[in-house]
Amino acid sequence: MVLIAAILAANESHASSVVRxxxxxxxxxxxxxxxxxxxxxxxxxxxxxxxxxxxRDTFDALRxxxxxxxxxxxxIANTSGWMQKIATDWLVNxxxxxxxxxxxxxxxxxxxxxxxxxxGGVLADRVDxxxxxxxxxxxxxxxxxxxxxxxxxxxxxxxxxxxxAFLLGxxxxxxxxxxxAFVNEMVGHRRLRNAISLNASIFHLGGLLGPxxxxxxxxxxxxxxxxxxxxxxxxIVVITLASMRVRxxxxxxxxxxxxxxxxxxLRYVVSKPxxxxxxxxxxxxxxxxxxxxxxxxxxxxxxxxxGATGYGLYSSAAAVGxxxxxxxxxxxxxxxxxxxxxAAAIFGLVxxxxxxxxxxxxxxxxxxxxxxxxxxxATGAESIVQLSTNRVIRGRVMSIYSMIVxxxxxxxxxxxxAMADAWGVHTAMIVDGVVPALAALTIGIILARSGKLRLRIxxxxxxFVEIVPATT
Length: 472
Fold this sequence. Notes:
Elements: H1 2-8, H2 11-32, H3 65-96, H4 99-126, H5 129-153, H6 158-187, H7 192-221, H8 223-242, H9 261-271, H10 273-289, H11 292-303, H12 307-329, H13 337-355, H14 360-387, H15 394-423, H16 425-450, E1 453-457, E2 465-469
Antiparallel strand pairs: 1-2
Helix pairs in contact: 3-4, 3-6, 3-7, 3-8, 4-6, 4-15, 5-6, 5-8, 6-15, 7-8, 7-12, 7-14, 10-13, 10-14, 10-15, 10-16, 11-12, 12-14, 13-14, 13-16, 15-16
Membrane topology: Multi-pass membrane protein
GO molecular function: transmembrane transporter activity
Transmembrane segments: 99-124, 136-156, 162-182, 202-221, 227-244, 275-299, 311-330, 337-356, 362-385, 397-420, 426-448
């Protein structure tokens, strides 16, 4: 671990030069872009704080009126969204008594994003993001209201559930990139990192509350009300978006219709190290490190024999860690490639330690550590990607980012499940930790070498280990 940290410390110097080069690249890109008629402003430098934020600044982005409205609506929407997911899966299980068909339902919700996600980014770059989100939420009201009504009337069929699940996935294609890029329009460049961390906190708070509330509602009155609640939440989102002070927004330049905009987005990602390398690392983390729920059931049933109660405890421990990591990320002074890759390495190693844990209480502690390190990586990666992206192309970049997250989890679930069946749950979890850790080490070495830096160790120096140019 010390070796990894030392190697990755070299990235601080390299990351700084990358940010400066990125600004120059953006200016050139805007001058020759085929998607805009007007020259858009270059990417601003990534903010660096010279002292750690005060605790009262932990929620700095909430000082923005529009973002406060957004946070209220997203807190409600995230909680109700989790409620609907749980209720929909339970509904399909009730209708079919077939776990495989429940998996089909989950796949249908993700499939549109995996197939059409980049087109959603193109759309987000072309239109007013606030109005686009209002439209998608209005469609969500109709879809969830319809499914809820059919369920409450007792006439719903699996085919109708699947159709609506697929259509909601199509809505997510357009809304996801727009929502990610719209955060910058609300809070501006300086507060963006803080807002991303707060968004992660809200998402995981919803992940804690939503399933619990949905479970109670399902037990008391059935799945229909949990689904219908999401329609009401979507109405609240539409109202809050319509109530925003438009004059206080920082609108992004709109990309005009042109051919090759998807290729342009892909070229942009590959051309910028502060976007490309976090996405490469994200692919490893999402494929191997974010498939923990696949293994927790087996650990609860077969390893520690703690049953459903233990499964709930393990899931809650990971969620508590994630919420803690999201709050801690608001205290960062800056975001660098070094810190992102280091967080990924720690994340992988903690997974390995959890897999080797001999007793359940220690396993729970490691699960909290997994949640913290995963969120420190995730918020750091999203922050540096957004801050390094020109606003005129941010929708496309974030759509690629979302596709990597969802695609990695979909593929990773299959890989992890197959490994658990073939080699056992302990070995599968060890592999899920070792792969991200090795990927982080490899990327760290590549970045250090590209910066022409090396480690120098000297017993007589005040600094026992230091990073120096390779030529000295």
